[in-house]
């Protein structure tokens, strides 16, 4: 089945939506130093602010993400986007720790279903052999958008205060929402073409089932190890969003252009990794038809390499080399987030992918609840802030290394036939 040209327009919207989604997350980290100073917050309190985003994020990922299998995904994404921009406009008016925590909780609830929605929409608009590049492009938007937005937002914060960053993101979100309402489509049926869900149903071994029937499939070894590996990426992602800017400012004493580079380069490299490794993964999948060779080995090896980079980043004496390793680490770790949807699409049918992806996001992102709190506690109660940050990064590196190896060794999916992949390509031609 040929990929409709309109699929690429939908992909552009998903990429831009992912950009806004991610920048809305990281903007709180960019304003960490002035907000902590204005509200007189301790490191442990700031850790709670960072953690609060994921309190309802996890719950909404499961409940609303699962609804993506049966509800109108265009309408769901529209309502979610409305929540995002509303919170951005409301945050400049907060005046206390409790109000700040409440806004982060609501934002987390609104953004929780976004990955599952994107996955469900992708399954409708793109064939299976293009899932890697499709999901990679969406993830490219999240990291690439952060790389572009971070220097701009840092300049706005320095010139107009921390509230200007939230106002700016609210305006951007409003513009994109209007365009999505006008040009967004639910599925190819709206332009007179069949959905790729119909094609995938013929090769799927697991038909659409209820939550009660679906839960046992989530206890499989493959799914559990995939969640653990994704949890490592979300752990590092939350640390990058909440604590990297403060670490670079207070410990490394970066400012001006150096601070902008230290904050934005990890996102830029992550964007390159996600699109690059997605292309490599899709190529290997088309060539071998083996998801382990094409996706699992790639994601696990990058996680192990990321753990090594995190450890080296805090042991080297050169600031330039430290920035280099802090740039490499997130890019390698986030490869699992780019490939996980494609892996899950191989484990589960498209009729259940909303449940699978929503549960994956909910469980793996739950580490983002813990990570900011752990860092805040270590920073506040260690002998010095420098020692506290060091302990936090050492714990991060060790966990990523061990789980990366377990994912590499433990995930053993059923091998797919290379002939089936070739047949699909011939059908497309």
TrEMBL record:
Record localization: Cell membrane
Keywords, alphabetical: Membrane, Transmembrane, Transmembrane helix, Transport
Domain Major facilitator superfamily (MFS) profile: 10-416
Gene: exuT_1
Residue stretches spanning the membrane: 46-64, 76-95, 133-154, 160-183, 222-243, 263-284, 296-314, 320-348, 360-379, 391-411
One GO cellular component, as annotated: plasma membrane
MF term (GO), any: transmembrane transporter activity
Family annotation (SUPFAM superfamilies): MFS general substrate transporter
Organism of provenance: Neobacillus massiliamazoniensis
Name of the protein in question: Hexuronate transporter
